[in-house]
Amino acid sequence: MVHIVTWNVATAPPPRDVSSLLQLDTSCTNTDMYIIGLQEVNSKILNFISDLAFDDPWSLHLMDILAPLNYVKLSSIRMQGLLLLTFVKHQHIPFIQDIRTNYIRTGLFGYWGNKGGVTIRMSIYGHMVCFMNCHLPAHMENANQRLDDFERMLDAQQFDDDSFGNMLEHDLVFWFGDLNFRISDFGIHFIREAINNNKYNLLWDKDQLNAAKKKEPFLQGFLEGPLKFKPTYKFDQNSDVYDTRWKTSLFGLNNKKRKPAWTDRILWKLKDVSGSEAKDTESDFEQILKVTLEKYTSHMSYGISDHKPVTGAFTLQVISFMFIY
User: Fold this and answer.
1) What's the domain count of the chain?
2) How far is 147 from 141, CA to CA, in rounded Å?
3) pLDDT digit string (tens) for 155-193?
4) In which domain, by residue range, is 106 found?
5) Quick one: which H or E segment has residue 146?
């Protein structure tokens, strides 16, 4: 079982209790690997310099919790406020190989790392799997820029000594983070009324990412679980109440609030092998990787940020087929 977490933590330190976030409060915990993608980790210059010399507070806190449960920190990669952590059960370590990490900046035309992606790829029991934690541009009107940035990351993200042309040549890619896609057209009152009545389906067609998946070729094949949980942005801190703050403009105070949105997402894509070259006739077996989403949800109890964390639990299964000639 692979458990993926994405959370924009808004520079806050880690909460003391992360049991629900890591599914440690369930009666049977069978997670083999944790992939934890954080955005807006405190990246003030003094904090960042300290984190270069020592593990950051989030890494230390999670390691204190997971190490006694026989998890090993496989990797940690950070680019300013973006942090990607990988923890693996000890018994799987011999079967995880070819680990590579990298990052790509997209802020300020590629010169600043406040936006972009941090990535780890590895061979898991013989299958190449890639995980990318992203923080894409904010605001309703920047949907096209979000799409452009992600398409560029797919093409440009490379690893040392890499034989892959781009990310999509891996057997499996997970894409997650604060993707910042919004709900278009509908007004704030309609959106909140739909949420209050648990009629999330009324909002799905106007979700910018759902709309883009229907027309953008580079998003074809990316899958996501149903959005059957509340939009995860924007909340008042330490509450489950959507944005009530008055904003300050050049002309004084106004009551324009942010519309709720599913900014925090987890998607995945399996490599399309239908058009690949014919199988090597000297091989009698083909191993197929199957991915099953077990749970996709948000965690409303955490209030340190204006975002709520989102988790996805996935079963990865290797299926062998024998060919008879």
Assistant:
1) 1
2) 12
3) 877 676 666 667 888 999 999 999 999 999 999 999 999
4) 2-322
5) helix 143-156
